[in-house]
Amino acid sequence: MQRRDFCAGLGMAIIALPSVARAGQTGKPPRVGMLWHAANEIEEAPYLGAFRRGMKALGYVEGQNVELVLRFADEKYERFDTQAAELVQLKVDLIYAVTPPAALAAQRATKTIPVVFLSIPDPVRLKLVEKIPRPGGNMTGFSHMMHELQGKRLEMFKMAVPSISNLALLVNPANGDIHRKYVEETQDAQASLKITSRSIEFSKPEEIENAFDTIDQGQFNGVMLYSDGLFFAQRERIAKLLLDRRLPSMWFSKETAEPLGSLMSYGPDLQSIFYRSATYVDKILNGANPADLPVEFPMTYPIVFNLKTAELIGVNAPQTFLLLVDEMIE
């Protein structure tokens, strides 16, 4: 059930622009090399599909005036460097890098091929760009600003489930400094909400059950997951483990709140960001310099609540919270 039609409010509608000029000039379609964190097109369908819709809206047709060269790391971060180097050898016209490990691998692989990055929490902190308004270098893209949302996410979670007092923070240590920042931001906000927390780490799919064994031993009554490619790819599996334990959870996107067992999410509308990213690909393919294209941020952050999960795990969210929800999953 949609509470608000936020499509207009996102400010991310794509205006049809004169596209494919480069394809016409060179006689062959430009090649966009894409680094994805998951295993295949099916796992990346929500976001790859949104990007493709954005390209189609700009007049691009795969196989005619654009070629997408897809690479999937399958959550094995050591593959990103190999795949980025392969795309450079293939002489793609642009690299599209999703998540920090992909963007950092692209940065190591090339200083000349333009790079558009997605799902980056803090591109300056990661040293992908010099400044947000004028990135410099060969990289620009879209940040989801998830660090800054942590206090608000915790507040929304407590509002939905007032009984939460001992929180398990699921983090991927493979992302190092990024997730340490997430934990710090959460811990800074938790005292005023009378919440304590502990980080539970795993970086591979085969470690998930062990992580939940630790959760079982810790007497936690809530789980928060940070924005991470591994957690997105394993969302169905994690949601089932949460449901088995009747644990309320806070996720980071609509897609991660949808599986039965996930309770809610608060974060940017990622599909709209991927749709919007086609405009930067189009501009660069038509001659724009990434150094001059400012890093863009989301305009809205919808709250999504899974009513079916709430019923199954015994969560009765207060009406004051339900009035804030942008989308109910029934």
Can you put this structure into words, describing what you see?
This protein has 330 residues and is of the alpha/beta class. The protein folds into 2 domains: 21-144 and 270-292, Response regulator (Rossmann fold), CATH 3.40.50.2300; 146-267 and 303-329, 3-Layer(aba) Sandwich (Rossmann fold), CATH 3.40.50.2300. 38% of the residues lie in helices and 17% in strands. The chain has 13 helices and 12 strands. The chain has helices spanning 21-26, 45-57, 79-89, 100-109, 146-160, 177-190, 208-217, 229-233, 235-245, 254-257, 270-285, 307-313, 319-322; strands spanning 31-36, 67-72, 94-98, 115-120, 139-143, 166-171, 196-201, 222-225, 249-251, 264-266, 303-306, 327-329. It has a 7-stranded mixed sheet, with helices on both faces. A 5-stranded parallel sheet has the order 2-1-3-4-5, sandwiched between helices. α2 links the parallel β1 and β2 (67-72). α3 packs across α4 and α5 (146-160) crosses α6. The longest helix is centred in the last third of the chain and has 16 residues, at 270-285. The protein is elongated. The termini are close together. Mean pLDDT is 91; it is low at 1-24.
